Prior knowledge:
Elements: H1 4-25, H2 32-40, H3 46-58, E1 62-65, E2 70-73, H4 75-84, E3 90-99, H5 106-119, E4 122-125, E5 128-133, H6 139-146, E6 152-157, H7 163-170
Antiparallel strand pairs: 1-2, 3-5, 3-6, 4-5
Helix pairs in contact: 4-5, 5-6
Amino acid sequence: MRTDQEKIKSITINILKGLSEFADEIIGPLTFSGLKRNLYYMEGDPRRLTNNIKSLERRGYLKINYKSDSVVLTNKGRIKLIESSTDNRIDGKWRMLSFDIPEQMSKKRDQLRRSIKRIGYRQVQKSLWACPFSRADQIDLIIKELELKQYTAYFLVERTDIEKHLKRLFRIKL
């Protein structure tokens, strides 16, 4: 049986995915009234879905402008989608991230660590992390959101002398 927290997380991800797909399909800006109209035809209680969308706005995943009647998926919402993605495509390249974040920014450093772990990065050395998944290319969203650009270095590596170690770390067939 799923807990309430798992259920809320599932609803959040499904709404964000739906918004992202819906926004990709239309040509103009996504409108709040249009979104509510489309939600009416989805499964479930439309009022509940509207409340969930407003909750996503309060938590910073969406930005709703009632005057212009527009809805925008924020960087925080995009990050949530990346973190919850199950797309584990491997293209033979390694995404490496190195960072040295000052102690006074330890909360942001911890946030960065949590996010990159959710995406699939694994720690290779103290300040070096690696990931073989192509979705990890979107790490710049997280770095930008946390305002850590000057403390990080991102590399896209085709060959490395530690490839055997990395493959073992990710349990990729040699």
